[in-house]
Amino acid sequence: MSMKSKPKQTLKLSPREKQTLELIAAGFVDKEIAAELGIAYGTIRNHVDKTVLKLGATNRAHAVAIAIRSNII
């Protein structure tokens, strides 16, 4: 497996997906992110799932790593 991951898709992250990813990178958990953004926990889970998929990551930590290396966040 290559250490360099590239997004599988060229889809851009929505502003909310990017914001969610930034909060994950800052150490927030989903419930804290939901409270911070004033949206439902389930909505956060959807944003995280979509972001991981869009970036071709295997998990949220991997998504953060890809986003940092790609200058997304």
Summarize the structure.
This protein is an all-alpha fold. It contains four helices and no strands.
Please tell me about this protein's structure.
The structure is a single chain. This protein has 4 helices and no strands. It has 73 residues and is mostly helical. The model has no long low-confidence stretch (mean pLDDT 89).
Q: State the helix count.
A: 4
Summarize the amount of helix as a percent range.
55-70%
- Tell me the overall shape: globular
**CA-to-CA gap between the ends?**
24 Å
Poorly predicted runs are none
Give the DSSP E fraction (strand runs of 2 or more residues).
under 5%
The chain-level structural class is mainly alpha
The residue-averaged pLDDT reads 89
Using only C-alpha atoms, the radius of gyration works out to 12 Å
Give the ordered list of helices and strands.
HHHH
- Major sheet summary line: none
Give the tally of β-strands.
0
Question: What is the quaternary state of this protein?
Answer: single chain
Task: Walk me through the topology.
Elements: H1 15-25, H2 30-37, H3 41-55, H4 60-69
Helix pairs in contact: 1-3, 1-4, 2-3, 3-4
Features of this protein?
73 residues; mainly alpha; 60% helix; 0% strand
